[in-house]
Amino acid sequence: MSAPPTPAAGRLELDAEALYRELLRGVRQMLTPATHLAGITSGGAWLAERLQRDLGREGAPGVLSSALHRDDFAQRGLAASAQTVLPFEVDGADVLVLDDVLYTGRTIRAVLNELFDYGRPASVRLAVLVDRGGRQLPVQADFAAARVALPAAQSLALARAADGTFHFQVNEA
Ligand SMILES: O=c1cc[nH]c(=O)[nH]1
C-alpha cells in the first residue's frame, strides 16, 4: 500500500507538504476507531499532532521518545529531548507509530522497547513520511508516503515552520 519508489534525483526535491497529504491519505485507510496514533519525537510527533487534528480525532496523540532505549545511550547520555507521553491505555491497544524518516531502523527498535515499557499493545504498525532505505535492522514501514535513495553522507529530517507547515532539512555530513 506504499507509494512506488521515487527515483533519487541528483538534487533532492522533497515537498514535505505534498508528502504530508499522501501520508494523511494512507493513514486514513489504516485507521480503525480503536487505533491510537503515537509520534516519535520530534518530527513524528509533529506529524501525529497534525494528523490527529486533520482526522478529526479527539484528544492528543501519543508521543514516543527513543532516548532511554537508544543503543548509543552510553556515548550520548540523556539528551534534553521530549519525553514519552501516552495518553491511552497501552495494554491491548492498536498503535500506529508515526515517524518522519525511516533509515537504519534503530530508532524504531528503541521506541518499540519504550512502548512496551508502558504495556503490551495488541498490534503496532508504522507509517512514515519518507523511507530512505539503508536499513540495519529487519524493520519495515506499513506505509511510506515516499521512498528515496540518499547518500549516507546526507541527513534528512522534517522541520516545522512557525505557521505549522512542514519542510525537509537536508544536511551534508
Ligand atoms: O538506538 C538508536 C536509535 C537511533 N540511532 C542509533 O544510533 N541508535
TrEMBL record:
Keywords: Glycosyltransferase, Transferase. InterPro entries: PRTase-like (IPR029057), PRTase_dom (IPR000836), PyrR_bifunctional (IPR050137). Gene3D superfamilies: 3.40.50.2020. The keyword Transferase applies. Residues 35-142 form the Phosphoribosyltransferase domain. Pfam families: Pribosyltran. CDD domains: PRTases_typeI. NCBIfam families: PRK05205.1-1. PANTHER family: BIFUNCTIONAL PROTEIN PYRR. This is Bifunctional pyr operon transcriptional regulator/uracil phosphoribosyltransferase PyrR.
